[in-house]
Every structure is written in structure tokens, then in C-alpha cells.
Amino acid sequence: MPYPYAVFGCHTTTAAVFTVALSDADGTKAEAPTACHKDVTPVAGIPWVPIHEKLGVTPGSVPVCHFLPQDGKLWMRN
Fold first, then answer.
1. 0.90 exceeded by the pTM?
2. Which of 5, 9, 55, 75 has the most CB atoms less than 10 A away?
3. CA-to-CA distance for 36 and 67, rounded, in angstroms?
């Protein structure tokens, strides 16, 4: 969601992070950081998009992956 100013939303997760190589039919190539959440079970008190319902899977049964936004930040432990 675009904002006219910097907005930081932090959460702790057990996601695995990958760099995915993408290519278009015209030969354009890019790499995109991707996070795969092992468990998307809703947590009390945290706004939740019922992604498992949209995907037709049971919460916690499959990992759910998504690309990170172009200007997104990711902090992780070594």
C-alpha cells in the first residue's frame, strides 16, 4: 500500500528467505527477495489477511511465499 511518507511495519517470523531469478519473455532479467512462511496460522492481536482461505489450504499445512516490495527492508540474524 503506498504512503506519502516512510512507514515501518515489523513482525517476527520464521520465514525462510530466498533470492529468486525472474525473466520476462523479452529477455529482461531481475532478482527478487522472497520470503516463505512455514506457518501462516493467525496470531491473536495481529491484523491478519486470511491468505490460507484464499489459497484453499489449512493454516500451517503448507508454506506461503511472497515477494518483498522493491524498497522493502529485511533484517535477519546471521
1. no
2. 55
3. 9
Sign of torsion over alpha carbons 59, 77, 8, 1: negative
Task: Return the C-alpha cell found at 13.
Answer: 517470523
Q: What is the pLDDT of residues 49-71, one digit of tens each?
A: 677 777 888 777 888 888 887 77
At 41, the pLDDT band (50, 70, 90 cuts) reads low
C-alpha cell, 4: 506519502
SS3 string, 30-49, reads EEEEEEEECCCCCCCCCCCC
Q: CA-CA distance, 6 to 26, in Å (whole number)?
A: 34
Alpha carbon separation from 8 to 11, 26, 71, 78 (Å, rounded) = 10, 35, 11, 22
Average pLDDT score over the chain: 78
